Amino acid sequence: MATVVSSRAVVGILLLILGLTYVATGSAVASPVDGGSNVTTVAGPTVTTTTERVGGSGILRYELTLTGLSEYERVKLVVGRDSTVVAADGMTTTQRDGRTWLQVAGDGDDASVRIRTTTAAAEGPSDGGEYFATESWLLGRVPLVELRWTAPGEGVERRRLFDDLRGTSEDETAGDRYALVGAQRRTTVAAVDGTIRIVSPAGTEFGPGEDALASALGDAADRLDVGDRGDEVVLFALGSPARRGGESFPVHDEGWVNADARLDDPNSVWLHEYVHTRQDFRLAADMRWFREASAEYYAARLAYEQDRIDRAAMEAHIDGAPTTAALTKPGSWDDPTVPYTKGARVLALVDRKVRLSTDGARSLEDVFRRLNEHDGAVTYADFKDAVAAVADHRMDGWLDRYVDGTAPVSSFYPGGPKRQGVLAPLVQAVDEMGTGAVFLVVSVFLSGICSVPLYRYLDRIERDGRDERPGRPV
């Protein structure tokens, strides 16, 4: 019997090794319109600004007046490439690297600078953004201006000037990136630890209605628990000639949206651009896809959670034709919409896998929050680490296949389009079952396949052993 017991133990050990191996491997001029003035209240020289639209043109003119300069040893202004310095009083100017450098000349106590930005009505999109002009209003750019100063016995200090001059007057709302000049109306929405301002030219009608829009954005701020709260978000709602859609600059918590955009749509531009304002991370090249992918996914999910669309509409929007583009390699994208399509589907999968792994305690929002809190540019490796930390296990193999690799993702939701290939049913089943269920099924399957021949072999050994015992007839 000792031989039989040892052989059965071997069977158990072999099956255990097979199971463990699977787990290890699977898993001009002319009547300017004054837009008002703003005064800084922070450290350094006092700066007062006024904004004017020159007639009905696409020109915005900014006048900066600096006072209290005699208190400082040196004061400079650096004006970015997107603006033109047209006049400077009390300051010398130098051109360098496309920027204008201005330094206070002499011992005067004040100085002034006039800066111009131009927004032609027919101007198309550029790296600096999209801007629009009509007879009654203009959405233009706020110039990039940095103030630098040195106090006696101190080092050089600096600040982005218009970061501190964010303000509102009767006919002007200026943020860090955009300035809307002309008669306008404003709606303020109380959000979690902050506010959302919806600003539009007077007479603009909102497609979803003002109350519904305010409710949707306030709810989105509450639901989207990804950090980067406590700031003021500004969304400009524009009519023609603004194109359909929108644009945003996440680092400035600002964006514009075509006022006709709907809320009851899985591709809600209002929610998409709002999600962008909650992205406080910098992305490395191999994570560039995440910015649009996360905005696309959460716009659809928020619309569903707010009961503005049904689940079928959300699923149909996220599902779509498969692509073999590698998300981490922008050069492989055969279409600029890859982050919106494959990227959003991949994030839907990651969200589900995290929820299943943590019994619903965590989700993709926790990954999103970790990226917002990350110091420096977020790389693909950082993303994998964040997913692992949230899910409590590594998902590198799966992520390398669908994010860093070219494996297509055609569907995530049950009932959606099926994956392609001979092994598609198995892959679909594995993705939907989860690691624990797969291990159980595989273990039972291997037990059934391997145990029958092994036990037959052991029975034969045992029988042969009995036949050879002394005194047994042959």
TrEMBL record:
Membrane spanning residue stretches: 437-458
Gene3D superfamilies: Neutral Protease Domain 2
The organism's taxonomic lineage, starting at the top: Archaea, Methanobacteriati, Methanobacteriota, Stenosarchaea group, Halobacteria
Keywords per UniProt: Membrane, Transmembrane, Transmembrane helix
Protein name: Peptidase MA superfamily protein
Source organism, top-level taxon: Archaea
